[in-house]
């Protein structure tokens, strides 16, 4: 009898007392260090189960003489994976499910090469992601500057529209008649004293009379 449970990047199939882990993608191969790994459950040194939640995926960790194998699964698979864990705990040595798996070394030496290759791949993905994020940030800054320029233009236009109209300049008061008469008398005295000619007197008098 075999039971297969689907995880995130790898599937687990329990065949008798042997658990077969099969990678279903790059993430699974990176975690397992191989495409397929078989684990003799009665020879396990430790095993642990952590359910998934809204923040992170669940984890099934199995430790044998080669190191620790980790399988991830989504929150909706909590029930199936917990049932599998219970069956594994019954087949494993007594107390294996009580041994902490946190400090167990991952996999064998050969598997470490696969992990290193996966880390390089993830780093390359990260670099490309950083480049995309930088481009997105620059685009957002340009858009923000353009928007601020438009808003500033709108504010200036509104301020000009709301500003009070300039009051008309007060008209220059025309010279009063008494002042003009006094100036004509002064011009006449200058003419009589021989300081200006008759023609100059008449020209100035005509200008002053035109202002009345």
Structure characterization notes:
With 212 residues, the chain is of the alpha+beta class. The protein has 2 domains: 2-119, PH-domain like, CATH 2.30.29; 177-210. Helices cover 49% and strands 19% of the residues. The protein contains 5 helices and 7 strands; from the N terminus they run βββαββββαααα. The protein has helices spanning 26-32, 78-91, 109-162, 177-192, 198-210; strands at residues 2-6, 10-15, 18-23, 36-40, 46-50, 58-64, 67-73. Strands 1-2-3-4 form a 4-stranded antiparallel beta sheet.
Q: What are the key terms here?
A:
212 residues; alpha+beta; 19% strand; rod-shaped
For the biggest sheet, the summary is: 4 strands, antiparallel
**What is the share of helical residues?**
40-55%
Estimated radius of gyration = 48 Å
Overall number of strands: 7
Secondary structure topology:
Blueprint: E1 2-6, E2 10-15, E3 18-23, H1 26-32, E4 36-40, E5 46-50, E6 58-64, E7 67-73, H2 78-91, H3 109-162, H4 177-192, H5 198-210
Antiparallel strand pairs: 1-2, 2-3, 3-4, 5-6, 6-7
Helix pairs in contact: 1-3, 4-5
In short:
The chain is of the alpha+beta class and 212 residues long. It contains 5 helices and 7 strands, in the order βββαββββαααα. The protein has helices at residues 26-32, 78-91, 109-162, 177-192, 198-210, and strands spanning 2-6, 10-15, 18-23, 36-40, 46-50, 58-64, 67-73.
């Amino acid at each position: 009898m075999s039971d297969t449970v689907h995880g995130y990047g790898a599937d687990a199939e329990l065949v008798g007392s042997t658990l077969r882990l099969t990678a279903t993608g790059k993430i699974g191969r990176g975690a397992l260090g191989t495409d397929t790994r078989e684990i003799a459950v009665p020879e396990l040194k430790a095993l642990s189960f952590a359910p998934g939640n809204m923040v992170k995926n669940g984890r099934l960790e199995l430790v044998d003489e080669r190191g620790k194998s980790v399988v991830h699964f989504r929150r909706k698979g909590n029930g199936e994976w917990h049932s599998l864990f219970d069956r594994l705990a019954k087949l494993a040595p007594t107390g294996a499910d009580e041994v902490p798996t946190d400090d167990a070394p991952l996999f064998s030496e050969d598997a470490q090469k696969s992990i290193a290759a996966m880390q390089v791949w993830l780093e390359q993905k990260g670099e490309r992601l950083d480049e995309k994020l930088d481009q997105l940030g620059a685009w957002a800054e340009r858009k923000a500057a353009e928007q601020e320029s438009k808003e500033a233009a709108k504010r200036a236009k509104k301020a000009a529209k709301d500003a009070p109209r300039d009051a008309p300049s007060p008209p220059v008061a025309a010279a009063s008649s008494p002042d003009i008469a006094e100036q004509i008398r002064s011009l006449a005295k200058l003419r009589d004293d021989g300081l200006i000619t008759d023609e100059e007197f008449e020209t100035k008098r005509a200008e002053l009379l035109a202002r009345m």
